[in-house]
Write a structure and sequence with these properties.
mainly beta, 7 strands, 7-stranded antiparallel sheet
Length: 165
C-alpha cells in the first residue's frame, strides 16, 4: 500500500535493485568509503494514483567516508554520509528512521515516511570503556519534492549512550 497500517488508498509494486560496496582506503588509521545505490525498476508512469511529480522518483544513493574504529577503550571514530533518496526508490515505511522523524500520522498511520529527501550526517563516536560507547550524530535533511505547500526539513542532533551488560 502507499500508506501502511490499513490506511492505503492504492497499492503499488516495487522491484528494487540495490548495489553496495565498502572499500578500506588506509588500514592505519582505518579509513573507508561506502556506496549504496537503489533503483526501483517498476514502471510507475502507468499508475494513475501516483502524482506526476513523483513518477520518476525511483533512485537513491548513499555515500559515506569515515576514519577510525571503536574496538578498544579510548578509540574514536568519525564519518560523514551524503544521502539522496527519491520517493519510490525504497519502501519508505520499511526503511530505517535515523535520518528523519516524518510519518503518515496525518493519514492515520504512525509509521515512518522515510524517503523523498536529501541530507548530510556527521558522526562522532567514542569508546569510553569495554561496555560504554558514546555516539553523536548531526543530521541536516531537506525534502526533495514538497508533498504539501512547503519543503520539510529535519535538522537534528542525536546522542546515544550504549551500555552493555
Amino acid at each position: 500500500p502507499n500508506i501502511p497500517d490499513g490506511y492505503g488508498t492504492f497499492n503499488l509494486d516495487y522491484s528494487i535493485v540495490h548495489l553496495g560496496t565498502k572499500a578500506t582506503i588506509i588500514k592505519k588509521p582505518f579509513s573507508y568509503l561506502t556506496l549504496d545505490y537503489y533503483h526501483n525498476i517498476e514502471n510507475l508512469s502507468r499508475n494513475d494514483s501516483i502524482s506526476k511529480k513523483f513518477k520518476k522518483q525511483k533512485s537513491g544513493i548513499v555515500v559515506s567516508a569515515g576514519i577510525g574504529k571503536l574496538k578498544s577503550k579510548g578509540n574514536w571514530a568519525f564519518s560523514t554520509t551524503l544521502i539522496y533518496i527519491e520517493k519510490y526508490s525504497i519502501v519508505d515505511f520499511l526503511a530505517q528512521n535515523d535520518w528523519t522523524r516524518w510519518d503518515y500520522s496525518s493519514q492515520g498511520s504512525p509509521d515512518g515516511r522515510l524517503s523523498n529527501y536529501k541530507g548530510l550526517e556527521f558522526y562522532v563516536g567514542y569508546l569510553a570503556g569495554k561496555n560504554f560507547k558514546i555516539n553523536a550524530r548531526f543530521f541536516l535533511v531537506e525534502q526533495l519534492v514538497p508533498i504539501g505547500i512547503f519543503k520539510e526539513t529535519g535538522n537534528r542532533i542525536r546522542l546515544d549512550l550504549d551500555i552493555g551488560f
